[in-house]
Specification:
α5 packs parallel to α7. The longest helix has 28 residues. Helix content is 43%, strand content 15%. The chain has 690 residues and is an alpha/beta fold. The radius of gyration is 40 Å and the shape is elongated. Strands 1, 2, 3, 4, 5 and 6 form a 6-stranded mixed β-sheet that branches. A 6-stranded mixed β-sheet has the order 7-9-10-11-8-12.
Amino acid sequence: MTEDRNSPGGNGNSSSPSNLRYFLLGGIVLLLGIYWYSWANVYELDYPQLKQLVVGSSRTTYDGSLADKAVGLEVAEGTENQLETIRYSRLRDVQLGEKVVWAVADRQVMSGPEQQDESSEVQLRVNRVNSEESKNKLTALLDQHNIKYEGANESGLARIWPFLLIMGAVLLMLVLALKRMGTGSAMQFGRSRGRLLAQQDLETTFGDVAGIEEAVEEIREVVDFLKSPERYQRLGGRIPKGVLLVGPPGTGKTLLAKAIAGEADVPFFSMSGSDFVEMFVGVGAARVRDMFQQAESKAPCIIFIDELDALGKTRSGSAVNNHDEREQTLNALLVELDGFSSNNGVIVVAATNRPETLDQALLRPGRFDRQILVDRPDVLGRQQILKVHVKTVKLDESVDLGQIASITPGCVGADLANLVNEAALLAARRELDAVGMEEFNESVERVTAGLQKKQRVMNKSEKRRVAYHESGHALVAFSLPDTDPVHKVSIIPRGFAALGYMLQRPEGDRYLMTQTELECRIHVLLAGTVSEELVFDDISTGASNDLERATSIARSMVMEYGMSQLGRVNYRQASQSLFLATGDEDSLRSSHSEKTSQQIDEQVKLIIDNSLETVRGILQSRYQALEAIALRLFEIESIDADELTQLVEDNSPGPWVVSGTEQRERSPTELEATVAVAKPTDVRQDSSRG
């Protein structure tokens, strides 16, 4: 026995139409209430009664008070058993029409079941006697008793136009709500928002994807299966039901999905995870079911869901919100991927940069069988990516894409595309005929350190302090063996808060770092504030970012890498994203006691204090070189690697590498103190004075 998903008793889109019906019913009731209110205070009088009321509302002048004889009009209304005496008084705002007279008066029930103590303002409607003589007599009577009057709209729309305006606004809100919750129709409220892409509109192929060859090969197998399934089925193999693309932002996950659509030659549905998230419970689940129904009708086909973490987050263990919209949507997706009745011929490709947040039931084999890492490219991958992006750019003969790839470690495809575009824009701004290496180097600095601020003016005292600060960074980085080569030193402000920067460029991609290399990084970061201390006998706020980064490295050495006297113990349980740099250390859970926490703080301070002593010794022994670099920076504001080398050579009496910091053979115990670098972007270092 099979279940009909469209049957009234099935677990279909039952709750969302119910919510929609209630919403529409409430709008209709509101409109009826507004219409009733607009006519609720309208009372009708006879023409003779109107004339009596005019006499009973006589005024001394048009704008004056009521006359002494203005006693109003009393009429009897109701049945014999429930007879009421009603007084109308203070007639005003009379509007004369051809057939109808509108006016405002005070109404009070003098006696009867609903007797009132005070009068209330009401509208009066009187049908006129259709004769010219009666019209002239009424106007003369109004003039005689000093009551103002004017012409009126026969239909009375002028009196109720505010209510009509409110009704129109309510109707407009209903229409906008329907478009927001569905596709503009109540019958399409639970329909999927997936777009079926036409094959002729898909121009991206695997040839346009570079730098992620391993991921392309994995995906190519899925496309080959769709084109020739008998090649795999003859040996009993089956295609994965789901393929999950994971990796840092900008590495090309969506681009890879576009290439799949261009190569597969089968129907391709594309949507975002947020398309399933709605305010009403049950709407997202209905859209999931509708999406797979459409896909089954066109099988074999591919469904691509971008940003899967929007609907696939881990379900909470709390019983309070276990029936919310997102969890029902996730349950529907789990069933469609691998439930009681599987969807043959439908392959789901999804992308996310937060795989740690996904529900484990979604990641198990049978649903997303294959998880493909789309990682940051290496130097060869970056060179291939640059070749793709410079196809439409006119390059100078001096441009070396290999060199550009070598100075951009950690960059992803999106970064390289932006780099090429910045270089092209810079060349166009300079009115050049082609893009050269100078423009590429400038674009690398712009992407790395931020936009140059040549218009910012610093006084000589601050400029001199910044020069010594950056000179200290550069000199210590030049003097230590386990640091990246210094590429440029500048005191031209860049970015949001940097008054100067020292740019280092790694010689290659790095995936491990030793304890000595981490300590050297801390030395370089602390060199700026130590330089200020030696020269000015005072320090400034410019080293705040340096201290923050140095402390972060020292704390990681103690808590994560086992590089302290506390031993090879991990005191931190990471809960941060694998691919997103949140920068929030408070989100990392700790699993240690208060005493251990105090010992950790002591070890962090010990590492920083030892580094300060080392840096102070380096700068004191090479104070002449520090002076020479700072004076040159103060003069020309920017120094490249060659000029820095010449300045150090000319002003350093001893060897280039400071004594006691040479590379040496390390013991097996020390060799164990290495750390896998989780984010290659951390290898690219530039010390900026913020």
